[in-house]
Amino acid sequence: MQVALVQLASSTDSAANRELVETRLGGLDGAADLVLLPEATMHDFGDPQHDLASAAEPLDGPFVSLLAAQARRLGSVVVAGMFEQTDDLPFNTLVAVGPDGSLLATYRKIHLYDSFGYQESDRLRAGDIEPVTLKVGGTRVGLMTCYDLRFPELARAVVDAGAELVALPAAWVAGEHKLHHWRTLLTARAIENTVAFAAAAQGGRRYTGHSLVVDAWGSIVAEAGDDDDLLQADLDPADVARARDVNPSLANRRMRSAW
């Protein structure tokens, strides 16, 4: 499976972000099976007083329509983060759009970032507690978002739902220890679940950047820098099967999740 991770820094100007996405995806050649953009690509979080409800869009709004057009052009599955409009607080949502432009899946972030002095739940609502996966070619892909990475039970749930690759868009806020946590948690989730991770992060001054592709052995396949970047990697689902054969920790479990 060919994956492409587009690292960018979005702003609170949704129209400008659509132009940015169109430019960045326009530079791809269509070789990737899966194209991954960060959390909040549609519209940045802004400062804590910024009204995300007024910026939120429906699933048939201009942002998803743009992703659908690009997915059709590329012949790829495109996954990106947005704020989804509701009659109350919006969801922090990942949308997965298929090569025909159809909406394949939505994942509404379960674990809101009420940590490190920030309170995401003041402005957004949490999604239902349910793992979300989709097929990309012959590979089952699980969806997680940013802060979800700190909760190993969700990674285990998407793996129990069949995931061989976990796609994790993020806006991982920069700060002391944060890059170390990012790398460590991604490799830990990969190792303990014998699953590959593709993590597309926001770059720029506010966020950590360092989008990562990690294989099922926990080895870093590709890593971005701090600013705008593009990672491309070839992930072989057979390598996941080999890792699970050599290290059958999933099969050896004596405690299992409800999923």
What does this structure look like?
- It is a single chain.
- With 259 residues, the protein is α/β, with parallel strands linked by helices.
- The protein has one domain (2-246): 4-Layer Sandwich (Nitrilase/N-carbamoyl-D-aminoacid amidohydrolase), CATH 3.60.110.
- The chain contains 6 helices and 12 strands.
- The chain has helices at residues 14-26, 52-55, 62-74, 152-160, 178-193, 237-246, and strands spanning 2-7, 34-36, 77-84, 91-97, 103-108, 133-136, 139-143, 165-167, 196-199, 212-214, 220-223, 229-234.
- β4 (91-97) and β5 form a beta hairpin.
- The chain is globular and about 50 Å long.
- The mean pLDDT is 97.
- Pfam families: CN_hydrolase (PF00795).
- Residues 1-237 form the CN hydrolase domain.
What can be said about this structure in brief?
The protein has 259 residues and is of the alpha/beta class. The chain is 25% helix and 23% strand.
SSE topology sketch:
Elements: E1 2-7, H1 14-26, E2 34-36, H2 52-55, H3 62-74, E3 77-84, E4 91-97, E5 103-108, E6 133-136, E7 139-143, H4 152-160, E8 165-167, H5 178-193, E9 196-199, E10 212-214, E11 220-223, E12 229-234, H6 237-246
Helix pairs in contact: 1-3
Keywords: Hydrolase
Pfam families: CN_hydrolase
Organism: Aeromicrobium terrae
Find the CATH topology: Nitrilase/N-carbamoyl-D-aminoacid amidohydrolase
Poorly predicted segments: none
Please report the number of helical segments.
6
The appropriate CATH architecture is: 4-Layer Sandwich
For the biggest sheet, the summary is: 6 strands, mixed
Strand content: 15-25%
Order of strands, widest sheet: 5-4-3-2-1-12
The whole-number mean of residue pLDDT values reads 97
- Based on Cα principal axes, name the global outline: globular
CATH superfamily: Carbon-nitrogen hydrolase
Specify the structural class: alpha/beta
End-to-end distance: 26 Å
Record field, number of beta strands: 12
- The Rg value, from CA coordinates, equals 17 Å
Secondary-structure element string = EHEHHEEEEEHEHEEEEH
Q: What is the CATH class name?
A: Alpha Beta
Q: Please give the share of residues in helix.
A: 25-40%
Q: How many individual domains? A: 1
Protein name: Carbon-nitrogen hydrolase family protein
Keywords: Hydrolase
InterPro entries: C-N_Hydrolase (IPR003010), C-N_Hydrolase_sf (IPR036526), UPF0012_CS (IPR001110)
GO molecular function: hydrolase activity
